[in-house]
Amino acid sequence: MIRVFLAYALSGFVALGYQVVWFRLFPDWFGSTSLSFALVVCNFIGGLGAGSLASRPMTTWIARVAGITDGLRLYGLIELLVAVAAALTPLAGHLPADLWGNFPYHVHDRIWVQDLGYRLGQLAVAVTCVFTPCFLMGTTFPLLSQVFLDAPGGQRLPAALYGWNTFGACAGVLACQFLLLPSIGHSAIFWLMLGLNLGIAGFFLITGRGDLPVASLTLDAASQEVNQATTPTATNLALLLTCAMLSGLLAGALEGDMFKRVNLVVSNSPGALGPAISFWAILGIFLASTFVWHATRLRMVHIKIAFVSAAIYFYAAWRLMYPSVINRLESRYTPIDAFGTINNFPDSVAELFVFVGGCVFVPYLLVSLLLPYICNQAQMRRMHLGLAYGLNTVAFCIGLIVFTLLAPRVNIFYSLKLMWVLMSCGVALLLVISERRGVRWWQPAIAAAAFFAGCIVTPAEFDVSYLMPNSIQTRYPISDLKSNGTDTTYVVTVPNGEFLFFGNTSMSGTVLPSQIYMRLMAHVPLLLQENPVGALVICFGVGNTASAIATHDSIRHLDIVELNRNVFETAAEFAGTNFEVYKDPRVRLINDDGRSFLRLSRDTYDLITSEPPPPMQAGVYRLYSLEYYEDVLAHLTPTGMMTQWLPVYQMPAKAVDEAIATFVTVFPYTLLYSGISQELILLGSRKPFDIDRLWQRFPATGAARRDLAAIFVDTPAKLGVRIVRTDATLRRDYLGAETISDERNDLEQMFLARKAGTVTYDPPEVLAWLRVEAPVMAASIEPILSRRDREK
User: Given its phi and psi angles, is residue 677 left (phi above 0), alpha (psi -120 to 50 degrees) or beta?
Assistant: First the structure.
């Protein structure tokens, strides 16, 4: 039996390894959108559930077609089919970029959105790559439970199998996310998982020796009725299925809720957050299954006590523990200006895992006792587990989607409060049902009605109790609260400007320092070109950079790509500083992921500027990677340029080095200049920069002149003096260092390195370069540098 347990643990490891890869690939294929996340989650979990529901007819058909009469060989064959289906994933990566059309967008309410055909194509790829292998995976748990139905201890086997499988899944999350992904990349992980999958298949195809003949794969109704009547602890089918669905619904809802809830506390949405939550959730499932396996006297009354305890702990953790933790950590917050702070929690991997574990592990452990208990009860009655396990998995998927995408579409505060309602209704339902009396139809009906009533009465207003105490969100007026399910956005108005927030993170603002560096991301590269006509802005923010581009009369078309449609819909809040650039007839507003748009578009631009969310946030590495810059370079005109935001004060030293090395590796000519203080800007081009052109093209009048004057730039020298590093010194000091790639989660792994990076500045070195390359500029800034009052 131990070989089966070990193999099924390895199968769980492989399944989570596949999922890690799918979560990396789908954003690269279709953009880092909520749709990409939903495609993976729904097809992964939905596939498992559908496979379990169809397990009996599916395994019977496969056995008959293959002529297999040994249960374990049949399991080996299904694992082989899983590997074959998973092998479709690398093939999907070779689909042509224009498969969906040259420009698969259409205008909806002034914003270009993805065509229906494009979205259906994404769904087809997801079903092919994810749902198909997961469907086959889902058939294996009921099959193995049936194989050993009459073996010694077989009546308690489901809990043991479930425990071993989740143990492997738990190990898979840690190993793939924290060891394999940084070291070998997701492509190598996929091929490793495929090899392990084939190894499991080959082992059981060769050794076999299962006790289940093909004829035993089905049990007739009469046999089930006899078993039901003769088993003293048997529960009726309605109770079994109700409990299975209740367990899945609460477990899925808890996982979705925890990701949103914890994300409001930790800093910068680190990439380790998701794996940390998954680790503790799966560990809870594993220990719950192991406990049920060994607890021979466990009864439904004990499960009810566990559910009540889970609800109490969940409430206490977030109404008592959370405020206590935040108050203790408040002294660690670092002020960044008069209005905000940098949240330094957590400051180690251990602290992240301990905090997440304290929030997630206990309620998940207690809620997870129900499913293995119910599966054991079904096994004792000699019932096929496909229906119970399948409905549990489908319910899990529903709970996860509701509290990951649907309830947060109102806003995150509404979703977090609604979780209390679901937990209360679920616990109440479990308390009123009985193993002896079974389930009456009105019991789940009343619970469902109570939950839907809760959906209506749950308040949806902004709630400062979920945010960091004394943050600007709690001290200044809030407006324009919106949510698309993935992000809740709102505007905070402070005395000197406004900030656009996503959850607990400030993404952009109109205060003067932000105005200066964001506008210089546009003005410098446009003034360095003879006649720029087209520009692309990736990440709109509050519109500072886009409005600066629009002030240049030579610009004929400006594409603005923004992942979050709410950002476009909030743009009017900042009309005083973006000057309603979103209404400019030269502008196209495109709601999509920047990487995805570049892959689909054939247009070229004289300027592509990129100001993504803070670099250390989960998934943002995609807008600092080697592959991203290669895509950008391919969309630049021969004289086109790119600017990239580089906030070194928010990045560890290693992250700064890798970001610069990656940029320098791709662009033939580079420059680094200061927007303001440590808000640095990388400039890349195919051709050398003519710095003296800043003098030739500096506007004497017009909108661009006024825009530059508003940020205290009234002479070309005040642009030239901002140069921090030249192409030669960047290549000397950074070329050859490690680069950021799509394959590995480079930046995500460094989010806990708190020592901020620096970039050295040597004025004489810059001046010496300018004397050769731009003598006019050198002569104008030499007096400024010699006085050591280099302007910001």
Answer: left
Residue 227: predicted pLDDT: 43
Of 639 and 504, the structure prediction assigns the larger pLDDT to 639
Residue 388: per-residue pLDDT: 86
Q: What pTM did the predictor assign?
A: 0.89
Which spans in 510-652 are helix H?
512-527, 544-550, 565-570, 575-578, 594-600, 626-634
Using DSSP, state whether 340 is helix, strand or coil. coil
Distance CA 268, CA 367 (A): 30
- What is the arithmetic mean of pLDDT over 93-102? 78
Mean pLDDT along residues 136-164: 84
Average pLDDT over residues 780-787: 80
Helices (H), 87-131: 88-92, 116-126
**pLDDT tens-digit readout, 767-778:** 999 999 999 999
Mean pLDDT of the chain: 86
**Is 26 in contact with 181 (CB distance < 8 Å)?**
no
Q: At what angle do helices 157-174 and 370-380 cross, to 10 degrees?
A: 140
Average pLDDT over residues 313-322: 79
Residues 289, 170: contact at Cβ < 8 Å?
A: no
Residue carrying the six token digits 């002020």: 335
Place of tokens 């194509």: 121
Helices vs strands, H then E, count in the chain:
35, 16
CB 204 within 8 A of CB 76: yes
Q: CB-based burial of residue 259 (10 Å sphere; 0-12 exposed, 13-18 middle, 19+ buried)?
A: buried
Helix/strand/coil percentages in the chain, nearest 5: 60, 10, 25
d(CA 227, CA 163): 26
Q: What is the DSSP string of 606-645?
A: EEEEE--S-TTSTTGGGGSSHHHHHHHHHTEEEEEEEEEE
In order of 333, 346, 430, 471, 532, the CA distances from 341 in angstroms are: 6, 14, 45, 7, 39
Cα angle 70, 75, 78 (rounded to 5 degrees) comes to: 125
The pLDDT tens digits for 418-439 are: 999 999 999 999 999 987 777 8
Q: So what's the pLDDT on residue 368?
A: 92
Question: Nearest CA to 464 among 473, 456, 451, 455?
Answer: 473
CB 643 within 8 A of CB 681: yes
